[in-house]
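Tokens as discussed.
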């Protein structure tokens, strides 16, 4: 015969194990989601603010440090920044 307390303990340990597995999997997902980026900086005396991305038609702007942080696989944006005279690759 099983006591009620024993079943509660078994269920709680199963829940704890499931929570631990979920926490571990989310940590692994965060680590694997790191995307390689390319950085470009606007020259000190220049005033290059941003550009319209050809695929998404969104305005891509520099951050407060006058830097553009672009994913490495975004070839269109990298091509635009490579051709811009006021921007240098870091």
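Sequence:
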């Amino acid at each position: 015969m099983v006591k009620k307390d024993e079943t509660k303990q078994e269920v709680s340990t199963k829940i704890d194990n499931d929570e631990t597995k979920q926490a571990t999997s989310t940590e692994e997902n965060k680590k694997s989601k790191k995307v390689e980026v390319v950085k470009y900086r606007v020259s000190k005396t220049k005033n290059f603010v941003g550009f319209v991305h050809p695929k998404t038609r969104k305005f891509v702007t520099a951050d407060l440090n006058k830097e553009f942080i672009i994913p490495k696989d975004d070839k269109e944006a990298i091509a635009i920044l490579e051709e811009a005279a006021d921007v240098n690759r870091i």
